[in-house]
Amino acid sequence: MSAIPATHFRIPLTNYEFTITAQQKKVVAVALASLALFVLQLSLSIGLALLLTAVITVLTHFCPRNDTDWFNTQFDLKTIGFLSGFLILKPLIIQAFFWALGIPLPPIAQEGIAEMILSAPWKMIPLASIVAPFSEEILFRGFLLERLEDLQLGETLSMLGQSFIFGAVHLNKSIQEGMQIPVFAVLSFMGYIFGRLKKEENSLLAPMAIHSANNIGACVHVLLSDKK
Fold first, then answer.
1. Does the global pTM surpass 0.85?
2. Residues 6+ apart with CB under 8 A from 152
3. What total of structural domains would you count in the chain?
């Protein structure tokens, strides 16, 4: 495949212009996403986070894939917007359904994440709706998926590999007893769907939008389920 043309930028009120290739954008995005994941989401020590970030960033730099632009904006905005709106409103629809039946909402399987959202919503909601979709889509559907493809595993195995790892990473928080396997299965399925969306739309921005909407909906669900 031919390389994606470089993107040209001009700083407002100046004559300074610069260009950045799709590969260079990937390297910068991977570095930022790695720090966000390891420091803000996984709460690793600064030293370990910097080491892992350096390794992943170097691998991205020396494994060039300048044939895809992760931040391509030419995708189906109408469909992505509709799905995003539905995911955000979904907990309200579920709440209305259970209210009509006169029964409470079912308990949250991911108890640890629910407790974190309820204890510090001002921190956790931006983290879940902005930081997590940005960092996880870049690292799982971007970096990891491309590295698995570089190993010549084939599209199916590469897609399954990133989705299973995505599901496993999310098991680091407290989960309702007996729900570990269902939670892993659901998250892995979501990772697979996000990966397919990236492939079909040829952009990480599409799964980022869906991922963000899903997480916003999950936060709303947690807040609606709070009995306090």
1. yes
2. none
3. 1
Residue 128 covered by a domain? yes
| C-alpha R_g of the chain | 19
- Has residue 160 been placed in a domain? yes
Q: What are the per-10-residue average pLDDT scores of the chain (228 residues)?
A: 64 75 93 96 94 97 85 93 95 90 84 92 95 98 95 93 95 85 96 96 96 96 78
Sign of CA dihedral 145, 148, 150, 152: negative
Asked if residue 1 is part of any domain, the answer here is: no
Q: Which of 152, 226, 166 is nearest to 195 (CA)?
A: 166
* Alpha-carbon span 84 to 75, nearest angstrom: 14
Q: Give me the domain span that covers residue 98.
A: 7-225
In angstroms, the CA 123 to CA 154 distance is 39
* Residue 215 forms part of a structural domain: yes
Q: Which two tokens stand for residue 104?
A: 């409470």
